[in-house]
Amino acid sequence: VGLGLAPFALGVIADIWNFQYGILFLGVVTALSCVLLRDIGEI
């Protein structure tokens, strides 16, 4: 998630639900991107 997308995504999710869900969502996205980047790094 780029530097501009993370605050935007957190703000959108916070407007819809609350900040707890936004932080949880960004944590899941960060964890998944770390796993994907680890696998892509072997290419």
Structure in words:
- With 43 residues, this protein is an all-alpha fold.
- The protein has one domain (5-40).
- Helices cover 79% and strands 0% of the residues.
- It has 2 helices and no strands.
- It has helices spanning 5-16, 19-40.
- Helix 1 (5-16) runs antiparallel to helix 2.
Count of DSSP strands: 0
Report the total helices.
Answer: 2
Main sheet specs? none
Strand content: under 5%
Summarize the structure.
The chain crosses the membrane at residues 19-37. The chain is mostly helical and 43 residues long.
Attribute tags:
43 residues; 2 helices; elongated; transmembrane helix; membrane; transmembrane
Task: Give the SSE map.
Elements lengths: L4 H12 L2 H22 L3
Helix pairs in contact: 1-2
